[in-house]
Fold:
Amino acid sequence: MTENKMQAIRLNQPCAAADMKPTMVDMPKLKSGYVLVKVRAFGVNESEVTSRKGESSPDFQFPRILGIEGVGVIDQVNANSSFKPGQQVATMMGGMGRAIDGYYTEYMLVKEENLIPFESDLDWSILGALPEMLQTAYGSISQGLHVQSGDLLLVRGGSSTVGLMASVLARHMGVKVIATTRNAAKLTTMKELGIDYPVLDDQDFVSRVQKIAPNKVDKALELVGISTLFQDMGLVKDGGLACFTGALGGQWTLDNFSPFMIPTGVYLTSYAGEAKDLPAEYFSHVLNMIEEVPIAKVYNGLGEVGQAQANLESGKFSGKHVVVL
Structure:
């Protein structure tokens, strides 16, 4: 960083992962209701790959600094702020990296209401893996599915970062988990994370789940998309819930939808939350209890962001790709 300048990955048009190079941009100026955060780490996400390709939703436009989540240390605050310089904070969503500039940068201007304060001695690589993954997983199972101890939960797309985190959190809540993957090589990693029933998602998927759960599952978390949603709802028992959170398969909508496509007695809900859905107390609780964070690979510096996106896009890794500055 030089005076009033900083490094960032600023994209002016769609590009390949290898074309993501740091450039010098203006430092953001502090304004009312915001704090300036020195970025220490951030996770790399599927939605950022989509944005980089120019295939994102209408709220995204170039030029843009990507990055929907991050952790860091507060650098500057306003006189009336409830935060203070040096404080550790996390944030995610809130339009970052899409409608406004995001975390692929050295410094980030963040609304105070979107900050989650915490104190931790964990490595920044671990802290950087958590915000979006934890917020989405926690919100899905707590608000979307209202999981309770003793439930049997199906996580479709279970080897994704959100799927892995949801499975880990659910197990800590006393829930048994069936989690799926389309890559047989990932089954061992899922078992090592403590998932009760890692299941290969192939042509025999339904029969495998039925063997584990002959009376069907209590709850289902859908992360693959519309292409598998109705199949999953068919595996949910009467009175159970299915929550649509993600579309790893790329299909978010369905033409010619009819409510009668939902099985009788099964409840369909969704989750698409924000930072406010992850209480600071719960974030701190997870930091204190967590033994294993699903991290695929750690990268050093903005110069390795392109490699991180390329590795994520390859689908060969299990866990989060995290960049540490």
User: Anything to note?
Assistant: The two ends are 12 Å apart (CA to CA). The chain has two domains: 5-130+293-324, 136-270.
